[in-house]
Design goal:
Elements (H helix, E strand, L loop, with lengths): L2 H18 L10 H8 L8 H4 L16 H16 L14 H19 L9 H20 L4 H27 L4
Length: about 180
C-alpha cells in the first residue's frame, strides 16, 4: 500500500468518525461548580513574599501590542513616499481596447457629422451642444477608467442620438421650420 493510499484511507476514516459525532453537545448544568470544586484554593499572598532571595520581582509593564510594528510601518511608508527614486518620470500607459474602440467610434462619428448637410437650425443648437458636452464628459471618464465597458456603450448611445438630432436639425433647416 502506498503512502498516498494510506493517507486517503486515513482521511476517509477520520471524516467518517467526524460525521458520526453528534451535531451539538451541551455542557452539564453544574459543570462550572464541579470544576471550581476541583481547583485548589487561591492564596492571596503578596508576590514579593513568594519570591526567593535572589529573585527580584519587576513591576508589570503595560503591553504595548503593535505600537513598535506600527511605527516601523509608518516610517517605511514615509520613506517610500519621499524617496528620490520614487519620482522618476512615469510613462503613459498603453491605450486599452476600450479606449481604442472609443477613438475609432469618435472618428467615425466626426466623419458622419461632416457628411451631413450644413444647414443651421438655431433652435436645435442647445440640444446639440448638450450632447457634445455629454460625449466629452464620457470620453474624459473613459480616460480616467479605461476598463469600464459601460462608458463605451454610453458613448455609442450619445453619438447615435447626436447624429439623429443633427439629421433632424438639417431637415428642419432645409424645410424652413425651427421645430
Amino acid at each position: 500500500m502506498s503512502t498516498h493510499e494510506f493517507d486517503h484511507d486515513h482521511d476517509h476514516a477520520l471524516q467518517a468518525r467526524l460525521r458520526a459525532l453528534p451535531d451539538q453537545r451541551m455542557p452539564p448544568a453544574d459543570g462550572w461548580a464541579r470544576l471550581a470544586a476541583q481547583l485548589p484554593p487561591r492564596e492571596a499572598a503578596p508576590l514579593a513574599a513568594a519570591t526567593a532571595d535572589n529573585v527580584v520581582a519587576l513591576p508589570r509593564r503595560r503591553h504595548r501590542g503593535w505600537l513598535p510594528l506600527g511605527a516601523a510601518l509608518a516610517a517605511s511608508l514615509a520613506f517610500y513616499a519621499v524617496a528620490p527614486w520614487r519620482h522618476a518620470p512615469v510613462e503613459a500607459p498603453a491605450a486599452t481596447t476600450l479606449q481604442l474602440q472609443a477613438a475609432v467610434m469618435t472618428e467615425e462619428y466626426q466623419q458622419a457629422v461632416a457628411s451631413l448637410p450644413g444647414g443651421r437650425a438655431p433652435a436645435w443648437q442647445p440640444a446639440l451642444h448638450e450632447l457634445d458636452e455629454s460625449a466629452a464628459q464620457i470620453r474624459a471618464a473613459l480616460a480616467q477608467d479605461p476598463r469600464a465597458p459601460h462608458l463605451l456603450g454610453q458613448l455609442k448611445r450619445t453619438y447615435t442620438l447626436r447624429l439623429e438630432l443633427t439629421r433632424q436639425a438639417a431637415q428642419a433647416a432645409a424645410a424652413g421650420t425651427t421645430t
